[in-house]
Amino acid sequence: VHTGMQGIRLGVVGCGAVGATFAYTALIRGLAGELVLIDANRNKALGDALDMSHGAPFVPPCRVVAGDYPDLAGCQVVVIAAGVNQQPGETRLDLVRRNAQVIGEVVPSILRHAPDTILLMATNPVDILAYQAYRISGLPVERVVGSGTLLDSARFRYLIGQELNIHPRSIHAYIVGEHGDSEVPIWSGTTVAGTPLGDAPPLGLPRERRAAIFAETRDAAYRIIAAKGATYYAIALALARICEAILNDENTVLTVSTLVPRYGVYMGVPCVVGRHGARGPLPLALTEDEIQALDRSAAVLQQTLAELGL
Ligand SMILES: NC(=O)c1ccc[n+]([C@@H]2O[C@H](COP(=O)([O-])OP(=O)(O)OC[C@H]3O[C@@H](n4cnc5c(N)ncnc54)[C@H](O)[C@@H]3O)[C@@H](O)[C@H]2O)c1
Description:
This protein has helices at residues 17-28, 42-53, 92-113, 126-137, 150-164, 207-218, 220-228, 233-247, 288-307; strands at residues 9-13, 34-38, 63-66, 77-80, 118-121, 144-146, 171-172, 175-176, 184-185, 191-192, 195-196, 252-260, 265-274, 277-279. By secondary structure, the protein is an alpha/beta fold. The strands form four sheets. Strands 3-2-1-4-5-6 form a six-stranded parallel beta sheet, sandwiched between helices. The protein has a three-stranded antiparallel beta sheet with strand order 7-10-11. Nicotinamide-adenine-dinucleotide is lined by residues 13-19, 39-41, 44, 81-85, 99, 102, 105-106, 122-124, 126, 147, 151, 179, 230-232, 235.
């Protein structure tokens, strides 16, 4: 019987598609001895807690409860996936403002009861809202982490792996920058067994295939949302991976969102993730074109932060 995670408490604030799927993933993977689910819609959290609890005979020991902010006391990590959905006719900035208001409410409520926790932001636009959470929380920067481009990097590795017929685990490839339209693929640093990709098989990808793979990576969410309204499985796995790295003090390198001093914004960059949270960014070896693309991505985030007065 797996008992290693007794004493580990994970909180989830915002138990919608993303939050609930994350909780379910954490349950199956035995990441915590206790999962605390909080949602503005209390019945949703209650229903999810009951539904997951009934799976107890089939998973490692874990108490799943619907709660309120005081129940977050002692949580090592709190995942924030609370937010409102974009309505037809709304601009992106409208969504930013509405979700910034939600984050402005939930972060102080979390910290009132769990001052030692690590905040893991999933709500979009994740880089902007992780930065906002960092600013209003007063926490050390390591302890406010956004899911960043970890999901995008996973999509990228999956697609490259499909093309080369090599498992994504063995593809070392990174998407950095904004989790969004301006994100940047680091083709120059993409390697298999330490060898950079060339133009010909077995480790080759011609220029037009690269463009298609990156476009599919960047636009994946649009495609999935058009097909079924939301994305939640892969982001839940990505969030679970970040939690696992924190809880096991792994010091694993993951492309999460952190403050990049050069730009003064949060964005997805390789960081060392362990019990301290996320320490980064690690230095990036980039081509001139990649640096320019990252500058442009930072500019998009800087402008949005300025419009929000952050
Ligand atoms: N970071 C990523 O890579 C990534 C991937 C997918 C989705 N997301 C984002 O995650 C967020 C959630 O998406 P979803 O599909 O789960 O949405 P959803 O509508 O299914 O769930 C959002 C939940 O938040 C709750 N909520 C709203 N305001 C709240 C508040 N003040 N306090 C507590 N709970 C509150 C709602 O009741 C709802 O249950 C969105 O912003 C989405 O864009 C991020």
